[in-house]
Amino acid sequence: MSAFELTVKEAATLINVLESCLSDLSTERVKTDNKAWHAELKEREALLGGILNRLKSVS
C-alpha cells in the first residue's frame, strides 16, 4: 500500500470533493433502473465512503 502526506488545505479540499461526489453518486444510483449500473455505483459509493472516513479520521 502506498502512502503520501497532504497539507491541511489539500485534505480539506479532498474531503469536500469526495462528499460532493458521494452525493452525486447517490442521486444517480437512485435514479437508474439499470441493475448493473446501480450495483457499480453502489460499489463506488462504498469505496469512496471508506476513503472519506479514513481521511476524516486522520485530518
What fraction, in percent, of the residue positions are helical?
over 70%
The SSE string, one letter per element, is HH
Mean pLDDT: 94
Total DSSP E strands: 0
The whole-angstrom Rg is: 13 Å
Q: What's the number of helices?
A: 2
Largest sheet: none
Straight-line N-to-C gap: 19 Å
DSSP strand (E) fraction?
under 5%
**Stretches where pLDDT falls below 50 for ≥5 residues?**
none
Structural class: mainly alpha
Question: What would the principal axes of the Cα set say about the shape?
Answer: elongated
Quaternary structure type: single chain
What is the number of independent domains?
1
Nutshell version of this structure?
This protein is mostly helical and 59 residues long. The chain contains two helices and no strands.
Can you offer a commentary on this structure?
- The protein is 81% helix and 0% strand.
- It is mainly α and 59 residues long.
- It has one domain (8-58).
- It is elongated, with a radius of gyration of 13 Å.
Q: What keyword list fits this structure?
A:
0% strand; 59 residues; mainly alpha
